[in-house]
């Protein structure tokens, strides 16, 4: 029987568009890159840490033998005279024939050449957790330039076995520096030491260079890719929904208003660059006094009429400026945007528009023609609160399925979560092992348990009754029907009672949006929340109300302006179908997969209340 052959490792090839070898293709091999020894490569990345090793001084060769002694030869008269010069000077000094200073021998300072050294760099290019060890001789590059953390390098060299024992299987001996991006160490915010994630939020443009954030971003990428893979494999179509909308999808969310009218109001006009430059009214008043004196002097002398006219015009403009600034201050203190009346017919879209909160309504129109559809894009909520699990700008997966009911949507959400958890376990093992070591020791177990366990399904009323019967546990929030379950209640259900993911369905209609289907009891609606350990309610879904009369009554009950939703009601007037779906915020899913506690640390640029730095 033929023996099984080991998988053939491919050589480290150049990345197609960057003319360099990605470190993952070297360090991600099963042999750690040993099979690539003696191969010439070009790598690029950023220095994570470094050290310098001095080379041992080279022992000089043995001295040459002394030359043979030359026998005396005849001496010339000039040589005899030169040898007697010190004697002549002494005689002249005795007889006072003058002072002759003997020039002393100058001490020549000879600068020693810098001792040769080798800079050992740990270089990362973001493609994997592990860094590549790179050896750069001081003759090739100044250690002061290549060693600082954050330095960008593009190096050509030869892979070799490590010169020192350590964790590396292979290292790169640099032969040529192709690019060197220097760093100002006094201003660069990162260092060799691990920094708290909270402090990195103030330099979000640099934090992907840290190992932790880079691993989180790669897991984030895998979850995004897995999301598309799941729905594409299941025959869904990816559809873009608008970011700017005139429809309030949920009916009770705080929204960002989109308008161009603010730039048209007098009280919001730009008065002068002086105010933006920090010039105060008091400073301008002081300059007015000086300019007034200048005008008075020119008026008395009457010597330069052109200078007088120019000074008068300058004084007039300065007086106008201070008047405008004073009026602006009064306007700011007396008028707010909330109380101002806008004429939206003169706005860009000729009506009131917002940044979208959810894509479910628009997606439903596509599902009623294309079947099963999903959307993946940014959503916005103007909630003025500090939360570790939500942002003002978040990326959301919205799903809508035609000819589908509540049970179908719950099944789809269940399968989706299991799929993405398995995908990152299969494709992000190195990053998950790093997370396991540095952040959350239970992350692998949690993901594997999500894949293997069955999700418990209970109604909202059952959840309330179960929590009421808990003995020996005092909840901070009161448990009663008609009130939303808090994070504390949800955590107790999944962590203490069921010890696995839980789906809570059929909520009171007062707690859910207007478009969800009213159940036969007239009190609850066909909705569900998927609750997971650590993150709480990760997915919220529902079956949409397909009955025109019921939907119209629900909108009237909530006081919604019907004209904004005429297009949505048309879906019920013409060819109505049952649809169901759900929404999932990606950032809490990344929290679940990484063990981090704050969504601000799992997005490239966090947008939250009071924070939009770049």
| Beta-strand share of residues | 15-25%
Coarse shape = flat
CATH architectural label of the domain at 214-258 and 355-454 and 546-601? 2-Layer Sandwich
Distance between the termini: 64 Å
What are the segments in which pLDDT stays under 50 over at least 5 consecutive residues? 266-278, 331-339
Oligomer: single chain
Radius of gyration: 38 Å
Give the CATH class of the domain at 214-258 and 355-454 and 546-601. Alpha Beta
Tally of alpha and pi helices: 17
Biggest sheet architecture = 8 strands, mixed
CATH homology group of the domain at 214-258 and 355-454 and 546-601? Bira Bifunctional Protein, Domain 2
Can you put this structure into words, describing what you see?
This protein is of the alpha+beta class and 614 residues long. Among the domains are: 23-54 and 116-181, Nucleic acid-binding proteins (OB fold (Dihydrolipoamide Acetyltransferase, E2P)); 214-258 and 355-454 and 546-601, 2-Layer Sandwich (BirA Bifunctional Protein, domain 2); 287-299 and 309-331. 34% of the residues lie in helices and 18% in strands. A hairpin with a 3-residue loop joins strand 14 and strand 15. Helix 5 (211-233) crosses helix 10, helix 5 (211-233) packs across helix 17 (586-594) and helix 7 runs antiparallel to helix 8.
